[in-house]
Design brief:
elongated; single chain; mainly beta; 1 helix; seven-stranded parallel beta barrel; 286 residues
């Protein structure tokens, strides 16, 4: 996933920028599409909003700066969004309405991406734009350099990779993998069968229920905070080189050096937490 992100960044940096004009030009287009249509779009520095609906068609509204003509091209069960003109659009907004079960494939350089009310797979590659996804997609893959990522309601396998962007995940179900360098990771109200989270210096906060796993959280200097129910069936093995491990499942709270294990319930999954200098806190949900 990281290799895909770096390749994409190299491609967009090499791309030519489009001239920017003052007033955006508005246009509309639509094509019929099946429920499971694949919609793919390449963007420059323009914002994208994608909404799922129940109609069997893809509809586009665009307001772009520069001499560009957006159009929809249908090829079997796939719809391509094209921008006819010189270079890459840099300024404006595109709004797409697609069947709720559609698969969405987006590549963008600097625009923000919002997707909501979709149940299909979503793939987004971005350099600096923020990405916000809400709904119940069955699969999510997001790669960005310094854009923030927000994911609410994923229901399947989700993979998120950033360099300096923060990651917020809420109400996720299934499998989650998050990688970041300096961005923070905040996972709330989760119910995960498998969790993999890695950060260099960003803090990692996990709150929710963890199933059979295996689960793993790795940081270098970032702190780790884990909040799970007291009734959870989970084995926790935490280790750190120079940080402290605080266990708030007992009163008074206990502080440990180097390593600490906590078993909740019987027959649960395994969560391994490893840091170099970051502190680790284990605490029960209220």
């Amino acid at each position: 996933m990281i290799r895909l992100l770096l390749l994409f960044v190299a491609l967009v940096i090499a791309s030519a920028s489009a001239p920017v004009h003052a007033a955006p030009v508005e246009s509309r287009a639509s094509v019929p599409a099946p429920a499971g249509v694949v919609v793919d779009i390449w963007l420059g520095e323009i914002d994208l909003v994608v909404e799922g609906w129940t109609k069997p068609k893809v509809e586009m509204e665009a307001a772009l700066r520069g001499k560009f003509t957006p159009r929809l091209e249908k090829d079997g069960d796939r719809v391509h969004v094209h921008f006819d003109g010189l270079g890459i659009p840099s300024g404006g907004t595109v709004t797409l309405r697609v069947p709720q079960g559609a698969e969405l494939q987006v590549r963008t350089r600097g625009g923000d991406v919002q997707a909501k009310q979709l149940r299909g797979r979503i793939s987004v590659a971005s350099t600096s734009g923020d990405v916000a996804i809400a709904g119940a997609p069955t699969g999510v893959e997001v790669a960005t350099v310094n854009g923030d990522v927000s994911l609410v309601g994923a229901n399947g396998r989700a993979q998120i990779a950033t360099v300096s962007g923060d990651v917020e995940v809420a109400n996720a179900r299934g499998e989650l993998r998050v990688e970041t360098v300096s961005g923070e990771v905040d996972v709330t109200r989760a119910k995960l069968g498998r969790l993999q989270a890695a950060s260099v210096s960003g803090e990692v906060r996990i709150a929710g229920e963890l199933g059979k796993g295996p689960h793993r959280v790795d940081t270098n200097s970032g702190e780790v905070r884990l909040t799970v129910p007291r009734t959870a069936a989970l084995r926790i093995a935490a280790s750190t080189f120079s940080g402290d491990i605080v266990d708030a499942f007992v009163e008074p709270r206990q502080s440990h050096e180097r390593s600490h294990a906590r078993e909740l319930g019987k027959g649960g999954g395994l969560l391994e937490i490893m840091t170099f200098s970051g502190d680790v806190e284990l605490r029960p949900a209220r």
